[in-house]
Specification:
22 strands, about 20% strand
């Protein structure tokens, strides 16, 4: 069959093919002598059952007249009935001819006792329908094969399934008899079932014209052809609907796709583009249709390259992933990634180019931002790794340093300054203190050191550091201090951290200056809005105090700036730097919710700008550390609890050297026993925070239940982060960080006892 023919032409062709089947059987004469079609179900008195059709696939695909013509052919041959069903049992079409079938159908319809056809069909009392559908066509659909049964009305029914696209979509059947029942017993049974009198049934049975067997066989073969014909018709209808849907979908896709769809002819003239393109570039298609694409939308400097790629596509060399900029009507530059496809006509001649484009402007910006954020992430991961290392070793390291410092101080007290060992012990103690400073630097870098933020004026802090900084950088370098001329906003930060920042940056400046040079320290207030912060991801809109340290030294290459704050990264010679100075500065700034920018070029010096968030203090008063001069010695009784024997022993020596009476315990349980035995003597509990059996805080609560008025001083080599995370100390508790000197211990003890 020619697929290019119209649907009516194809229907006629199928009709002709069906008729040829009869001719080949030499039965055309029997067909021609048959009676004309009888009336259909619309004249049965209960209306058209096809109006109840819910499925509608067959009735939607084939018009009613065609279905009537198909069914009528069996009435011409058999003069009985024919019905076409959807898969779910809905009527696609039904027709009656013989008086017998019309009589039985009408009688069984009255047995339903309802005027509603849907209710009648569902009642199970419409016997003709039950035979025609339930007993015959439904079985044909379920078995997917022909079914031949004796119906409830005394004749036979033959049904075959209808296939479309490989699935059963319905069934077609007809009735036949040779003849209907004529014996009295069978007629009486039918009369009782259908509510009819025997005489009427006998009359219609006698009037029924029998058909020879070959006519019935012809009808059965023809029914198979009709089923195939209906299936082909449905296939074609489905194909047409699918094609319409595809065309609609394709058009909708073109117009709604969030990509550029562009068609150019072989000369590069604009043939078509979609709505998204119009939205993107600001031109309507009718404004630029027929115009040269390259001259209209491309930058002049890009035209040569893009024309070469276009010519490759015209020559059937597809281009994938080419990126170029196009210019919108308002002058905005849009970066587009293109995928080109050559368009051919039926003779395989190139007629144009289909170009699919995707706006990647934001994606490119995001990729650049991702690279920058990945670099920041790697930096943060390195910092975190060192921070964990620092936190992990701090406890044991600080304990050991405390032993070294403590015993060095005790030994120095027992020696004359002229003793040869005095100088050696002094060097040992200084080395231990420098090691303690290194640990604090690591913890500052990791943002885990114990800090005591205070509301302060940075100008005052810098001025207190100036003398030390001058000595630090040397006489050959001029230090310029330029405080803000306006009142400086307050910040909340640990003053010692400002000292660390200034010391590290000034040492770096000193190392960058060969011979004579200058270092400048400036402060000022500054406010950043969202526009600035969008280009500086570390910054958050708000008020800041800016601390600037700059030098006129050798400056740095861009590659060095990339790694500047990495831990242990240094440009200094081996043994001349730890690589922790700037990492420490970075950690401090981040710990205080600030950010830092660096500006440097070779031979043009370096400037560090540190931004610390403004602190709003209603009292407008900076925190001043209480300066209390505590006595160095005392005579109170102290309970010292420490699970490290060497520190316990050393602590006892220090406290006894200060005049205190000391009770020691290496376990919390022993400390509780001592508290019970010496309840009237002990005035101060000094305990490590992390110990076996129970933590220091729990120990203090136990002892407070025995000695309600006892004072407590906690000590630990662990970082403040670990202690705070585990809830081991509260704000306001007296605390001393290991390692500590004898003077620090003396001061903390007096402060704890005096509070």
């Amino acid at each position: 069959m020619d697929n290019n023919n119209s649907l009516p032409e194809q229907v006629s062709e199928l009709h002709r093919q069906a008729e040829d089947i009869i001719k080949k059987q030499s039965l055309q004469s029997a067909y021609n002598t048959a009676k004309p079609p009888a009336n259909d179900t619309e004249e049965q008195g209960y209306g058209d059952l096809t109006t109840l059709n819910r499925d509608g696939l067959i009735s939607r695909s084939i018009d009613k007249e065609t279905l009537k013509e198909i069914s009528a052919e069996y009435l011409n041959l058999l003069e009985t009935s024919s019905a076409i069903y959807e898969k779910n049992g809905d009527y696609a079409y039904g027709i009656f001819c013989s008086g017998w079938c019309r009589l039985m159908d009408s009688a069984s319809r009255k047995l339903c006792h309802t005027e509603d056809n849907a209710a009648a069909l569902a009642s199970g009392k419409w016997l003709c329908h039950e035979s025609c559908w339930t007993d015959c066509s439904k079985l044909a659909i379920e078995s997917q094969s022909p079914v031949d049964i004796e119906c409830k009305g005394g004749i036979h029914l033959y049904a075959v399934p209808i296939f479309s696209a490989g699935e059963v979509i319905g069934a077609i059947n007809f009735g036949y008899g040779d003849p209907p029942p004529r014996d009295a017993e069978r007629l009486k049974s039918l009369a009782d079932s259908y509510g009819l009198d025997i005489e009427t049934l006998a009359k219609e049975s006698d009037a029924f014209a029998s058909r020879p067997a070959y006519i019935i066989e012809l009808a059965k073969q023809r029914l198979l052809s009709s089923a195939r014909f209906i299936g082909i018709m449905v296939d074609r209808k489905r194909a047409e609907e699918s094609l319409r849907e595809q065309l609609y979908f394709a058009e909708s896709l073109i117009e709604t796709a969030r990509v550029i769809i562009l068609v150019l002819d072989t000369q590069g003239r604009i043939v078509r583009f979609n709505s998204y393109m119009e939205e993107l570039v600001g031109y309507r298609l009718d404004e630029v249709k027929g115009k040269d694409w390259f001259g209209t939308f491309l930058k002049p400097e890009d035209c040569h390259t893009i024309k070469s790629l276009f010519q490759m596509a015209v020559n059937d060399m597809q281009n994938y992933g080419n990126v170029n900029a196009i210019i919108a009507k308002n002058g905005r530059t849009i970066l587009v990634e293109w995928y080109d496809k050559t368009l051919k006509d039926k003779d395989d001649r190139t007629v144009g180019i289909l170009a699919i484009g995707q706006d990647i402007t934001e994606r490119k910006q995001a990729e650049e931002e991702t690279v920058r954020l990945q670099q920041q992430l790697h930096q943060a991961q390195k910092m975190e790794a060192i921070g964990r290392l620092a936190g992990g070793v701090a406890h044991d390291f600080n304990n050991m340093l405390m032993v070294i410092i403590g015993y060095s101080e005790i030994s120095l007290d027992s020696l004359n300054t002229s003793d040869p060992l005095y100088e050696n012990l002094t060097e040992i103690m200084n080395a231990a203190k420098r090691s303690a400073d290194l640990t604090r630097q690591l913890l500052a870098f990791a943002r885990k050191q114990s800090i005591v933020p205070k509301v302060l004026d940075i100008n005052e802090t810098v001025e207190e550091m100036l003398k030390m900084l001058v000595k630090l950088i040397g006489e050959n370098i001029n230090l310029n201090w330029k405080p803000s001329s306006d009142p400086l906003w307050h910040v909340k930060v640990d003053p010692s951290q400002i000292d660390q920042i200034l010391a590290n940056l000034c040492i770096n400046a000193k190392d960058a200056i060969a011979g004579v040079g200058n270092v400048s320290i400036k402060t000022c207030n500054i406010t950043y809005d969202e526009v600035y912060c969008s280009n500086s991801p570390d910054a958050i809109p708000g008020d800041y105090v800016m601390l600037t340290v700059s030098d006129d030294g050798c400056g740095m290459e861009k590659e060095i700036l990339t790694n500047l704050f990495e831990p242990f990264f240094t440009t200094k010679a081996f043994g001349q730097g730890t690589g922790l100075g700037l990492a420490t500065v970075y950690g401090i700034v981040k710990q205080n919710n600030g950010f830092i920018n660096v500006y440097s070029e070779p031979e043009k010096g370096t400037t560090f700008k540190i931004y610390l968030p403004r602190h709003i203090d209603k009292s407008l008063q900076t925190d001043k550390e209480d300066v209390v001069e505590f006595a160095k010695h005392g005579d109170e009784t102290i309970l010292l609890v420490e699970d490290e024997p060497v520190i316990l022993k050393m602590g006892k020596l220090i406290l006894e050297g200060l005049g205190y009476k000391v009770l020691t315990a290496d376990l919390p349980s022993k400390a509780i026993n001592l508290a019970e035995k010496h309840a009237n003597e002990i005035e101060l509990l000094i305990t490590d925070v992390v110990m076996p059996e129970m933590h220091g805080r729990d120990l203090a609560q136990n002892i407070l239940s025995i000695l309600p008025h006892i004072k407590c001083l906690f000590m630990s080599g662990y970082t403040a982060e670990v202690i705070a995370r585990d809830g081991l100390i509260d704000e306001g508790m007296h605390f001393i960080q290991k390692p500590f000197s004898r003077k620090e211990m003396a001061d903390k003890v007096r402060k704890a006892l005096g509070s």
